[in-house]
Amino acid sequence: MAARSAGILLYRLTGGGTEVLIAHMGGPFWAGKDDAAWSIPKGEFDPETEAPADAAVREFREELGLDPPAPLAELGTWAYSGGKRVTVFVADGTAFSLDGAVFGEFELEWPPRSGRTQRFPEVDRAAWTTTDAAATRLVKGQRPALAALEQHLAALDR
Question: Which of 11, 134, 153, 158 has the fewest CB atoms in 10 Å of its CB?
Answer without folding.
Answer: 158
